[in-house]
Design brief:
alpha+beta; 4 strands; elongated
């Protein structure tokens, strides 16, 4: 194969992978298996409640929590650590950097 064709072959393979992934997503959309509420206490002692759901995507199940803005994020194994990193600790670090 001439070296001039290699970039086109790589591009075609990349596009084929993307199209296959989009087709799989269309055929097997994510579905919510269960819902609930996740609660934890922050540093100030306030009880925080976050909606939680288990979603099946492509044969895998993942737990997600909803942030106050309405965005669902993956728990990545530990919902409490994820919520702290995305909400309370994030704003604490922003306030420290402004001082």
């Amino acid at each position: 194969m001439p070296l001039k064709l290699v970039p086109f072959v790589i591009l075609a393979l990349g596009l084929a992978i993307i199209v296959y992934g989009l087709w799989q997503r269309q055929m097997n959309p994510p579905r919510v298996i269960s819902t609930g509420v996740f609660s934890f206490t922050d540093k100030a002692g306030t009880l925080l409640l976050f909606p939680k759901r288990v979603v099946a995507v492509g044969g895998f199940e993942t737990t997600e929590v909803q942030l106050p803005g309405g965005t669902w994020i993956d728990c990545r194994g530990d919902c409490e650590a994820t919520i702290k990193a995305e909400t309370t600790e994030f704003w604490d670090s922003q306030m420290r950097s402004r001082r």
